[in-house]
Amino acid sequence: MSEIKRYKFGDIVLPNGMIRGPFGSSLKKSIFVSKAVNTYKVYEQSVVLEQNKNAGKYYISKKYFENCLKRFEIKENDFLISCSGVNYGAIYQIKGNFEQGVINQALLIVRVNPLIVDYDYFLYYFRTFIVKAITTGTGDSTIPNFPSVSVIKDIEIMLPDIETQHKLGRVLSCIDNKIKLNDAVNDNLERQLMLLYNYWFTQFDFPDNNNNPYQTSGGKMVWNDTLKRYLPKGWEAQSLLSNRLSSVIKPGVDRFAVKTYLATADVKGTSIFAGTQIQYESRESRANMQPSVNSVWFAKMKNSIKHLYLNKEMLPIISNAIISTGFCGLQCKEKSFEYMASYISNSYFEIQKDKLAHGATQEAVNNGDLAGVYIVIPDDRVLEAYHRIAQPIYAQISKNICENREIIELRDWLLPMVMNGQVTISDGS
Predict the structure, then answer these.
(1) Which of 210, 241, 267, 413 is the most buried (most CB within 10 A)?
(2) Pick from 100, 159, 166: nearest CA to 130
(3) pLDDT computed for residue 330 by the predictor
(4) CA angle, corner 380, sides to 374 and 384, nearest 5?
(5) Please, which pLDDT band fits residue 420 given cuts at 50, 70 and 90?
(6) DSSP class per residue in 284-343
(7) Taking Cα atoms as reference points, which of 395, 393, 400, 399 lies closest to residue 183?
(8) pTM as predicted
(9) How far apart are CA 161 and CA 153, in angstroms?
(10) Which residues pair with 7 in a beta bridge?
(11) What is the C-alpha to C-alpha distance for residues 367 and 241, in angstroms, rounded to an integer?
(12) Percentage, residues of the chain above pLDDT 70
């Protein structure tokens, strides 16, 4: 294991390598222009939060850039750090082809010295160690903010030699690339499912008894007064609160020694992050929903699109997790799980949920509100056919989610172990 050296944060950045965004008055909407050949992009928090350098929509003229904002210009390998709001401390690195531009007031540019710090290593080290020091004890304002640049420069950090950083950075990058690959596969599979769901259950062109598209081929449609639309003969409409395909899961958990608590913040879309280790006796009141096989979960809060689809492939998570009461769970029958999961995935459901959300401080739905959400109930033949097609797709999605969770745990375990000398990175890593 190489020697670990102590630095000040200011020692590992290039001269003038920490630049806080300009005052808001420098980027008033009145100075924005349409994107053109000689314009400069304004990099906003969305770039960091979405981990996407193409996020954002505002531009300034070349003249305004050169006269007023040139010192805030983005350069290759810059790290952009979110400095305000609930996601302060998020970090993103500018790599590859990118638009010339400047940061806004909510971002901080950090330019590290590559002779001292490996870029990939710094990204993980920041997320694991530095962000905790920066985002702790910054006051009790409603919207948290970073401390001043001068304070950040004095934060102490510990670094191994540059070669060890290179090796560990490569390992951590490989782990993240695998996570991204699994996410891309799942995104593709979810798109396939949504196309199939819409074709079968919105256009009603599921295969009829002769394997022809039902409605297009003249299948009988019957008016439904509840939904105010025609449905295939034999189909009906029932509320999400009371229907023959699922039932609402009530709060309450079995006694346990130690489990992982999944708060709503631990779920992004359908991706599941580390969570928090809790004990039964000392758990917070919100840690009170029991996951189960063939259960479908959605975040109750308005404008919060977070879903959990817990089939048998998710048993590693089901058996070791407790879910927040910020989620509503639907216990499905085995052959209705995929249909209910696809229904919850549909944007129509989120629109209906948001319409019914209420509350003085935080708008959300409760179980009773689900009586106002109506779903189409297919006949058993079509439901089973959808189950046969969609089941292996959902199974693969779940396997990828579980693999990502294991990889994330490995990644988050590895860096601290290297730093305290319990793990070394060899040349063959």
Answers:
(1) 267
(2) 159
(3) 98
(4) 105
(5) low
(6) -TTEEE---TTEEEEE-BTT--BEEEE-GGGHHHHTTEEEETTEEEEEE-TTTHHHHHHH
(7) 400
(8) 0.78
(9) 20
(10) 157
(11) 7
(12) 93
Please tell me the predicted confidence (pLDDT) of residue 21: 92
Do residues 379 and 235 touch, judged by C-beta distance below 8 A?
Answer: yes
Q: At what angle do helices 337-345 and 380-419 cross, to 10 degrees?
A: 70
Percentages of the chain per state (helix, strand, coil), in multiples of 5:
40, 25, 40
C-alpha distances out from residue 399 to 187, 197, 393, 411, 412, Å = 14, 21, 10, 18, 20
pLDDT beyond 70 at 86: no
pLDDT at 315 over 90: yes
**pLDDT, tens digit, 9 for 90 and up, residues 31-61:** 999 999 899 999 999 999 888 999 889 999 9
Alpha helices (runs of H) in 155-226, residue ranges in sequence order: 162-201
In sequence order, the β-bridge partners of residue 92 are 80
Sequence-distant (6+) residues with CB within 8 A of 64 are: 31
- Give 319's contacts (C-beta < 8 A, 6+ positions apart): none
Q: Is the dihedral of CA 364, 366, 370, 371 positive or negative?
A: negative
Place of tokens 């959605």: 298
DSSP 84-137: BSTTTT-EEE--SS---EEE-TTEEEEEE-TTT--HHHHHHHIIIIIHHHHSSS
Which residues, listed in sequence order, are joined to residue 323 by a DSSP beta bridge? 262, 289
User: What phi and psi values does residue 278 have, to the nearest 5 degrees?
Assistant: -135, 160
The percent of residues above 90 in pLDDT, for the chain, comes to: 71
Residue 99: CB atoms within 10 Å = 16
Q: Per-residue pLDDT for 429 more than 50?
A: no
Q: What is the number of alpha carbons within 13 Å of residue 420 lying toward its C-beta? A: 6
pLDDT for the residue numbered 118: 94
* Cα 276 from Cα 263, distance rounded (Å): 8
Tokens of 254: 């079995």
Q: Is the pLDDT of residue 427 over 70?
A: no
Radius of gyration of the chain measured on its C-alpha atoms = 25
Q: Are 389 and 383 in contact (CB under 8 A)?
A: no
Q: CA–CA separation, 212 vs 205, rounded Å?
A: 8
CA 318/CA 17 separation, integer angstroms: 46
Confidence (pLDDT) at 138 = 41
Other Cβ atoms within 10 Å of 8 Cβ, number: 13
